[in-house]
Amino acid sequence: MNISSQASKPVSDKPHSFAIRVPAIILSWIFHPIFIPVYVIAFMVYLHPTYFAGFSQQAKQQTLLVVLLNMVFFPLLSIVLLKALGFIESIYLHTQRDRIIPYIACSIFYFWAYLVFKKQGIYPNVLPSFIFGVFLSCNAALMANIYQKISIHAMGVGGWLGFFLVVAFSQTMLMTWPVSMVILIAGLVCTSRLLISDHTNKELYTGFFLGVICQFIAAVVI
Fold it and tell me: Which of 63, 22, 26, 33 lies closest to 214 in space, CA to CA?
């Protein structure tokens, strides 16, 4: 399906009850892909026993601030500006056409965040590796967007699970409960997207597995 035909595809109006739709909407907002890097890096900074063991509290807070600025604030600001200037129809990016420029903008911000942490040389390698995986995911989504409107929510939780599996394979921490938690979150988020969006099963599966694979690739190359 090409971009022009997908652009006119309406948002899903499936007749689900209010009691089902509200939790699905809340989950979709809480675990929006724009926020997932913050959750993952907060896990690295505050919960992993060794990654940031030698960092002061101020240094940890500064790390999260850099992530918030480059991976949340600037991408959101760019989307708001694109809407204000008329380059996209909606900040919710319902169509494939609306997603093209935001994907490119986010890729730039993610790559900049990767360079910031990689070049300083004081951070554990797993941090720039994860961010590079997010950058790869964004570019994979841009390429896949030519053919289908893959779920970026599914890609986000897929990348989250992929990174936690990388950490588990490194054997630096017992990851039983974090991996189990993310699998549960991934199931809830993907189910929510089926309930309140126009995504198909194929678009969800594609996004999820691309997110996982991009984190594996980043772990190997970085």
Answer: 33
Nearest to 124 by CA among 41, 192, 189, 186: 41
Which of 80, 87, 83 minimizes the C-alpha distance to 34? Answer: 80
The 10s digit of each residue's pLDDT in 16-59 is 687 889 999 999 999 999 999 999 999 999 999 999 999 999 99
Residues 6+ apart with CB under 8 A from 218: 129, 130, 132, 133, 136
**Spatial separation of the C-alpha atoms in residues 144 and 215, rounded to whole Å:** 17
Q: Which stretch of DSSP H or E encloses residue 188? A: helix 176-196
Tens digit of each residue's pLDDT (9 = 90 or more) over 115-131: 999 999 899 999 999 99
Nearest to 129 by CA among 215, 71, 63: 215
